[in-house]
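User: Can you write out an input/output pair for a complex, sequences first and structure second?

Assistant: Here is one pair. Inputs:
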Amino acid sequence: MTRAASHRQRSGRNRGQWSLLLCLLITVVSAAVQATDLDYQSRTVTVAMSQEPPDMNAITSTDAVSGMLLGHVMEGLLRYDPNGDLVGGVAQRWQLRDDGATFWLRPDAKWSDGSPVTAQDFVFSWQQAVTPAVASEYASILFPVQNAQAINDGQMAPSTLGVRALDDHTLEVSLHQPCPYFLGLTAFRTLFPVKESFYRSRGSRYAAEARDMLYNGPFALTRWVHGASVRMEKNPHYWGREHVWLNRIDVPYITEDPNAHMNLYRDHKIAMASSLNSESLEGALRERMQIKSYLDGAIFYIEFNHRDARVTRNRNLRKAIQQVFNTDDLVYKVMGSPGSFPTYTLFPRWLKGKQDFFVREYPAQKPELNVTKARAYLDKAKQELGVAKIPPISLLADDSPGGQKTAEYLQTLLGQSLGLEIRVDMQIFKQRLAKTGSGDFDMVVSGWGPDYEDLLTYGDLFASHNLNNRGRYRNERYDHWVAVAQSSLDVAERMHAFDQMQKILFADAVIVPLYERGNVYVQNPRLQGVLRRALGGDPNFNYASIQPEVSVNAETSVNPESRLNPKTRIAPGSGLTPNAHRGAGVILEKEP
Amino acid sequence: MTQFIFKRLLSGVITIWFIATATFVAMHAVPGDPLANDKAVAPEIRRNLEARYGLDKPVLQQYGIFLSNMLHGDFGISFTQKNRHVNDIIREHFPVSAVLGVLALIIATVGGVVWGALTAVYRDRWPDSVIMFLVVIAVSVPSFVFAMLGQLGILAMNEWLGFSLLPVAGWGSFGHMLVPALVLGLGTMAYLTRLMRSSMLEVTSADYIRTARAKGVSPLRIFFKHQLRNAILPVVTVLGPSIAAITTGGFVVELVFAIPGLGRFFVQAVQQLDYTVIMGTTVFYGAFLVFMVLLVDILYGFIDPRIRVGQVRG
């Protein structure tokens, strides 16, 4: 080899080494830039989201991810405090009457541009929400307000809505009938204020980017790279800024993959990983992480079709199914979904009754499992229907793991114990919704999440006038009790009404309640005050703070109750301690 | 050449029109309601929503409106991501997929050529067996498995090192791209390795190689100058479709590594029946694929002097 050639080769080798070094350098620099899950100095928490927020316009928004963000950057007349109680938000004082309500707004409530939040801002957003052309899917939440329904039907002008700004800081609402739960509605996103001049200046681009929104909540959206990241920073104009500890909430990861969330958590890149599936839960338990769980408010049940052409209109057939269905078996043995509780009623365990939780004051009737009785019901059903054998029953379910497992369990159970032929109709989510809506089913596995903090958000589901009553169940007595709960201002009377509703649901076997959905998650023990809840956006960091780093590794201490034995999880009172967060039903909320 | 390009462009336009029409028909034939939501809406609100998205018109008219908007380069507003234009979605997220895809393709091509050449050189000896065994694994194991393994690998490495050398997920720096690009390119790399191997073996027994050997040309020179250069041609042929496949097929990798690429939006749109996004992304991907194939056809003429399409007639 000549000298020149060997030199060339050497320099080539050098180049190779340099480029390798450069590569390493880039990686190290890129790694150094990455933030960690919690930064005590800058008061920053880093978390991940499952999805790009689909609609940040509070007037039309319906989904959970946007709801989570809106819960930080916007504020209604009222808001939920850390205990889940309603307290003043933009409103300082309020008065609820039979025929209406008055709200006195804080003079220091401001938008993120420094301008005051006025009563007119509420009038504008409420009018927008019921305007037919805006097509807000949550318009019905405003129907207790005078003329709202007529406006939404296109029969009256939006300006006739029963809400007026008496002056900049006084809002007057007229109700068309007494509405005991109206204060809870004012914390809902559809009723958040929107500044008209800003909204009009953005046109169809309102809420499309971070700069196309105006914020009045504890935080403001300062960065939004679609599909990639979101950043919220403390709103310097927020009236209660002294009570907000965090300076920044960073969301640099958006993915639906729960394993990715868990891996990011294990790498200390995010402070919380939600919706653990059974595999990641096993891993978390092995690594002795502290497991937490809460109820997200959703209740699942089997809904029957009560239309005339369906066999399931027969009460005795439904009673026969009710008599053999073992909800405990489904939840603990079949589904194995951690954190969920079997239920026997439509009403969740975290909503208040007169003084205590409703489900404690009015315990639901548990069906006794009795195959003999069930067969007797079935014989009666056959007689009434005039058939020797019950024709095949179609069971509609979506292709989610929960839907699939429930359907398979039901198919086997009813086939073996009652000899019923169940045809499972498995559909993608959207098609399940379409078929449920058009009544194309005998039985369907459905779920329902709450809109506001009142039993009525569940109770009116089976009122004959409710569009969400997919099985078209009709019962005048049920409607009567719904009407009582809708308009009575007497708590005892209302709770009695809800109890009557659950009794009718059981006696008539209108539905078979399945479970209250739980969500199991891990969270850095140094992060405190995070709210997990069913209402107002979840999770919420408005009251969160970070503990300074300590030498003891808190993660190694294991909470014995967090072991995944379902029997210990439903130990009496575990979810029903008087101090438990009302809006959240926090069950394993115990710090080491 | 100009005539050839013109002809190919024309057939490309027809292909894209066909893709658009087929997608439109399939999309409307799929059961499900794009406006369905968890909660029922009043008939009046339903009508307003339909009017907003033009679903109140007859399907044929919707098709006409779609075609005319497409010619103006406007795909409308997303059904699920309110306030967002489909054009914006493509403009913001395609570059991410493209950057990742190009990196994956570089890894795949370089890897494929090197491994393929190695297996041919060490034919029927242990490096050949080992590499070909790995190739079979890479071809047959689905990418979501590699994606998850890759992520766990990074995690284990970071835990072992005590600091984060590579990010587990996310987007923004070169470090974020490395492992996702490797995972994304793995399948193509395996395919190219096989292709390169057979192509190399074919070339090895060619007359000109024997001649070169007889002339006493050094083995290294034969390898680089004659074998590799001739064997690489088939690899270039499949690069066009591969580019399209890699830049569009990264759904799983994008999901696992939380990368804001277009693939995720595409798949989510199909799951949620987001009509405008489905149409926009399909037509865009279709056009992209057609363009890439055309580009490779033209490039091919430059690389291989024997194939000058324009001169066939002469």
